């Protein structure tokens, strides 16, 4: 689809949106968005949509008005590519080799530098907060600090200067005190390979904000790899009041292939493989002590990118996430597939497994003497099961709640708590979002908003002041009443606005 794959443009100076309808008077603050928007430089082009260079958007709500601006993230990757007028830095789906015009010594040095991948700093996935610092982020060890007011790129930060990590998620969690929790992967260069859970305190930033909040990072705990050379890929994780929920899925990163990808002439993305014959492990780690629950919880093979929410209920951990039967979603976003039209595009969809919102339930009061073959889930509002096996492990089967929902969002005041509503992009017959949906996990009913030739991005929920009900108000650039899904207002931007991935709302200072 051309709307996805054409190069986006910057709007570096704020432009005023034309408002129809009425914005809530209390809606004051800035919505930051991030996503890929530059897919070619000079005559060179990326292979994959997730390779495109980051474009940061801001929508500032103030006194009933909306102003929009956007700037490309001025990462080192961006600067090198623009200076060379071609793509010179490798991305996840596009491997780049030295200029053949360079001499043999320069080419040899470049090859040796790629024995251990030093990833791009093109942070195109999300906007995250550590302390009072805001960063464009992806899933590698580099993040780029940005100024949320001007969208200027302030500084490049390396997780490895603060904690031993090669990879980290772009989907952290925030608690009520403002602390940030995240997970990362430590590969073999940092001792025994493991998944690492860490916390950045709310007060991590200094008053002048000259020192990064990451300087106060605390490692909470770690989980050893099930397979030393093939760690699980993960895009997000769950968090309850007391626990971190980590899904170790059989969608794996082959470290040996990763280390040799450059020499074999393949992309890093090709080093991800799903083992359909393997199982999925569910780890529950106490976020206060760092100790894992000893019960071995497992389920059938699945692929997950986005968690929705997790909470504790009567000695159970309940967590909802968007799952797939296979890993073809990544394949769908190669630009060659996205540009297909008509029958060719329809045929390519035949290999696309739809996203399914599923609920898993893990009982915490598992006893070794529990009857074998018994379902240990005692909650009455779900059909999810957790069955005790002969070896003392617990086999978990989910309840499927809704098919065709991705990029999920909730009222974040209910994060880690029992909740009712999930918002997201509806994808009925295509992986490209064309509707916004609101799903009630209690009644199992849903509402939708759509408009022809409209491709909405991930919805972001902003609660009205003093709101008691979970679905009081949810704005988009289109602002919808979260109860009725009626349109309250829309802000028409007099500039090109490229499709994006994820974002963060920053309330105005009171």
Describe this structure in words.
Helix content is 10%, strand content 37%. The protein is globular. It has 7 helices and 36 strands. The protein has a 6-stranded mixed β-sheet with strand order 17-18-21-22-27-26, with no helix packed on it. Strands 1-7-6-3-36 form a 5-stranded antiparallel β-sheet, with no helix packed on it. Strands 12, 13, 14, 15 and 16 form a 5-stranded antiparallel β-sheet that branches. Keywords: Iron, Metal-binding. It comes from Scomber scombrus (Atlantic mackerel).
Write the layout of secondary structure elements.
Layout: H1 2-5, E1 11-16, E2 18-21, E3 29-38, E4 40-41, E5 44-45, E6 53-62, E7 65-72, H2 76-84, H3 104-113, E8 126-130, E9 133-137, E10 142-146, E11 153-158, E12 167-168, E13 173-174, E14 180-186, E15 194-200, E16 218-224, E17 238-239, E18 243-248, E19 251-253, H4 255-264, E20 272-274, E21 280-286, E22 297-299, E23 303-312, E24 316-324, H5 328-332, H6 335-338, H7 342-349, E25 356-363, E26 385-388, E27 394-397, E28 399-403, E29 405-409, E30 421-426, E31 435-440, E32 446-449, E33 474-475, E34 478-480, E35 487-492, E36 502-507
Parallel strand pairs: 22-27
Antiparallel strand pairs: 1-7, 2-35, 3-6, 3-36, 4-5, 6-7, 8-9, 9-10, 10-11, 12-14, 13-14, 14-15, 15-16, 17-18, 18-21, 19-20, 21-22, 23-24, 24-25, 25-28, 26-27, 29-30, 30-31, 31-32, 33-34, 34-35
GO molecular function, one term: beta-carotene 15,15'-dioxygenase activity
Binding site for Fe cation: 171, 235, 306, 502
Family: Belongs to the carotenoid oxygenase family.
């Amino acid at each position: 689809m051309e709307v996805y794959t054409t190069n986006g443009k910057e709007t570096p100076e704020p432009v005023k949106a034309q408002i129809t309808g009425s914005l809530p008077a209390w809606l004051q603050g800035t919505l930051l968005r991030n996503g890929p928007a530059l897919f070619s430089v000079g005559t060179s082009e990326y292979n994959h949509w997730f390779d495109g260079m980051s474009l940061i958007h801001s929508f500032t709500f103030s006194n009933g008005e909306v102003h929009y601006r956007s700037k490309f993230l001025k990462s080192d990757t961006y600067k090198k590519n623009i200076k060379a007028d071609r793509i010179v830095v490798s991305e996840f789906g596009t491997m780049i080799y030295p200029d053949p015009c360079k001499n043999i010594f320069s080419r040899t040095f470049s090859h040796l530098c790629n024995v251990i991948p030093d990833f791009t700093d093109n942070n195109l996935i999300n906007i995250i907060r550590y302390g009072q610092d805001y960063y464009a982020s992806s899933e590698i060890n580099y993040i780029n600090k940005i100024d949320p007011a001007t969208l200027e790129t302030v500084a490049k930060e390396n997780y490895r200067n603060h904690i031993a990590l090669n990879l980290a998620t772009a989907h952290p969690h925030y608690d009520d005190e403002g602390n940030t929790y995240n997970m990362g992967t430590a590969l073999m260069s940092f001792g025994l390979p493991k998944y690492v859970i860490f916390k950045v305190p709310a007060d991590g930033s200094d008053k002048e904000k000259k020192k990064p909040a990451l300087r106060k990072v605390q490692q909470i705990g770690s989980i050893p790899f099930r397979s030393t050379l093939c760690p699980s890929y993960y895009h997000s994780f769950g968090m309850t009041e007391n626990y971190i929920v980590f899904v170790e899925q059989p969608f794996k990163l082959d470290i040996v292939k990763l280390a040799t990808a450059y020499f074999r002439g393949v992309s890093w993305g090709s080093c991800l493989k799903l083992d359909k014959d393997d199982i999925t492990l569910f780890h529950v780690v106490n976020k206060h002590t760092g100790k894992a629950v000893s019960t071995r919880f497992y389920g059938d093979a699945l692929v997950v990118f986005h968690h929705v929410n997790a909470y504790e209920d009567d000695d159970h951990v309940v967590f909802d996430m968007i799952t797939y039967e296979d890993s073809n979603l990544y394949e769908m976003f190669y630009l060659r597939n996205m540009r297909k039209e008509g029958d060719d595009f329809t045929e390519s969809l035949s290999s696309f497994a739809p996203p399914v919102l599923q609920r898993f339930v893990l009982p915490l009061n598992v006893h070794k003497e529990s009857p074998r073959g018994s379902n240990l889930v005692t909650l009455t509002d779900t059909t999810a099961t957790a069955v005790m096996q002969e070896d003392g492990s617990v086999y978990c089967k989910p309840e499927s709640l809704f098919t065709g929902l991705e990029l999920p969002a909730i009222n974040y005041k209910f994060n880690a708590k029992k909740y009712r509503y999930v918002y997201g992009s509806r994808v009925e017959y295509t992986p490209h979002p064309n509707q916004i949906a609101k799903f009630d996990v209690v009644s199992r009913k849903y509402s939708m908003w759509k408009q022809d030739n409209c491709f909405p991005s991930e919805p972001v929920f902003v609660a009205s002041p003093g709101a008691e009900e979970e679905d009081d108000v949810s704005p988009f650039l289109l602002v919808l009443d979260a109860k009725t899904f009626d349109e309250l207002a829309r802000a028409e931007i007099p500039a090109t606005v490229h499709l994006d991935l994820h974002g963060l709302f920053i309330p105005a200072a009171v």
